[in-house]
Amino acid sequence: MNRAILSLSLVLFTSSLAPASVDLGDFAGYTPYDSYIDPVRQVLGTLEGATPSLDRVKALMGEGRSFRYSHTDPYTAALPAVTASRRIGDCKDKALWLCDQLGDKHVRFVIGKMKRSTHVRHAWVMWNDGRQWWILDCTLNYQPIPADRVPPGDYVPLYSWTKDGSYRHRTSPPMLTADSSRLSAAVASKGALR
Q1: 3-state DSSP of the chain
Q2: Each residue's pLDDT tens digit, 152-170
């Protein structure tokens, strides 16, 4: 009996240490951010390059992190050339700049929450080096974060965009379909992106 309890305890303990799955979302025909996301679509649509090395990614994150933080228009990201020339931007500006610099057609521009309990939205990049997914947040970090090692409730994706389209994540609020303009107005009033 004691061995059975010990074995069950060991299984439960080791399963709690197992990496969490990475939520890549489901294809979405519409997101509440669509009217603000044109610069993201424009940049992601031009990406054709190969996967950069992890060292290159770290160097780019350091450069992006050195850009001064300044909150701009709440929802429309500045084009990467503007962010680079000014060396200033908020989370969405820095994330889009990083997507452009990576050049990898498989990157994801993500809008979500730093903490599940907050109402403030944040933007970051998800990137796969061929072995695993990484969270790249040069607004707050100098180093990539393994996405499967992020504690539950941190870096909660709501919507993401790739070269191929937009995605709605499991943690996204239910979609309203009756009036998309009312939904966009509700999103705009919920709190700005960093």
Answers
A1: CHHHHHHHHHHHHHHHHCCCCCCCCEEECCCCCHHHCHHHHHHHHHCCECCCCHHHHHHHHHHHHHCEECCCCCCCCCCHHHHHHHCEECHHHHHHHHHHHHCECCCEEEEEEEECCCCCEEEEEEEECCCCEEEECCCCCCCCEEHHHCCCCEEEEEEEEECCEEEECCCCCCCCCCCHHHHHHHHHHCCCEC
A2: 899 999 999 999 999 999 8
